[in-house]
Amino acid sequence: MGFLKQNAQLILMISALLALRWSIVEPYVVPTGSMEPTLKTGDRLYALKCAYDLRIPMTDTILFRTGNVNRGDVILFQAPRTPEVTYVKRAIGLPGDKIAFREGVLYINGKEVQKSLFPTRDVMYDIEEKEQKALYLEQLGDVKHYVILDNKFEQAQTRFMDEIIVPEGYLFAVGDNRDHSYDSRYWGFVPMENLKGRAMFIWYSSWDPNVKESMTSTSLTFFEKVYYYIYEFFKFFPDYFKGEAWIRKERVGTLIQ
Length: 257
Prior knowledge:
Strand content: 25-35%
CATH topology: Umud Fragment, subunit A
Radius of gyration: 20 Å
Largest sheet: 8 strands, antiparallel
Helix content: 10-25%
Distance between the termini: 49 Å
Structural class: alpha+beta
CATH architecture: Ribbon
Mean pLDDT: 86
CATH class: Mainly Beta
Low-confidence stretches: 14-18
Number of domains: 1
Shape: globular
Oligomer: single chain
Number of strands: 17
């Protein structure tokens, strides 16, 4: 009891920080290019966990709903087939929406979602095989965002999808890098209870192609993650000074939309 009394303030502060981490914000490192160029591999972001519901700290028990998903939100969620893995995608289909793809063009409720070629390609500077990829600006409701289509995949199966209806309690989510995203077109709908928050902003971004395999892995154990975190830290800076890795200073503080 003496220890508790002497350290009451410290214990309260740690408890508050843990509650903040588990109920308010969710840190996330982007492991793949499925959301390029909105999110790039190596982006570190924060998600607002309480954007849609408030849960008991350190549990998945929902206390109450705090808001609804809007079409165009960039969401974090437990992968339906592998719930231990967190995905980040864009919610394009809400409950009751009719979703279809024709030649890579998105249709919602029978209406074509407009997109236009973006006039500059500065944001594509570090994207692999960028010469063969077209950059668009898509208007998804009130949200304008980048979309990439790969010229190699003009007849790909994912460019075509018969109209489906999003059932109640579910979402349809896809990546902005449309031809290189494993998303609802493959594994189906996102259950609302799988939501982990809405992506808010990028607080740091760096990339080292030499540690790509460990960074993009989604099946590491906790101890493997710790090992690779240390490995990546000490590997990054020598590569950075050799010009083989980089810090994306221009992305720091970027709001995600």
